[in-house]
Specification:
The structure is a single chain. By secondary structure, the chain is of the alpha+beta class. Helices cover about 30% and strands about 25% of the residues. It has a seven-stranded mixed beta sheet. β1, α1 and β2 form a beta-alpha-beta unit. α2 packs across α4. The radius of gyration is 16 Å and the shape is globular.
């Protein structure tokens, strides 16, 4: 398993991602899953990232369970909104893409200036792909260069869980089970 690519099809690495215009030429890491639900249902579920990370809640949500029910209003998008506690929405295409930049309240980012874009690709009436691209800056020193593989491995584990959870919940939403 590669830290750079997980679940991604070759053509998906060539897609246009919102973060490409923001931080061109950066190291890129891709993650993707199949979603067995219509793209609009999956996008609505993707908007739930505004209220919780949907990964391993005991690690990145202070032990609180990410909501299973849809939260009203989270699909009302505006740049500058806080998402998943540490991200700011910097660009979006309704129904298709969300692009975030990692931020902290003091203006400094713990892991550097990271940008992530989520893209939905519709493949059929009840099938789409959820593809994420992580844009990482050049390491700022030897310590960051040495720990970069750990950051990428951690991201792979966390984002894999996040994407799988979102896909499962979108499928349940489509089947009327949530």
């Amino acid at each position: 398993m590669s830290l750079k690519v997980w679940g991604t099809r070759p053509e998906e690495t060539a897609l246009a991602f919102g973060g490409d215009a923001v931080v061109p030429g950066r190291a890129a890491y891709y993650r993707a899953v199949d979603v067995h639900a219509p793209a609009p249902v999956a996008f609505r579920r993707l908007c739930q990232l505004r209220v919780a990370p949907y990964s391993y809640d005991w690690i990145d949500n202070r032990g609180r369970r990410s909501p299973r029910a849809l939260t009203p209003g989270v699909e009302d998008l505006a740049t500058g909104q806080r998402w998943m506690t540490i991200f700011t929405l910097i660009a979006f295409v309704p129904g298709e893409q969300l692009t975030f930049r990692i931020t902290r309240r003091d203006g400094r980012a713990l892991f550097g200036d990271i940008v992530v874009t989520y893209v939905l690709r519709e493949l059929g009436p009840r099938h789409c792909r959820l593809v994420a691209k992580l844009h990482l800056p050049e390491p700022r020193g030897l310590l960051e260069a040495a720990t970069r593989p750990l950051l990428c491995a951690g991201d792979l584990v966390m984002m894999r869980r996040q994407l799988l959870n979102l896909a499962a919940l979108a499928r349940e939403d489509d089947q009327g089970q949530v």
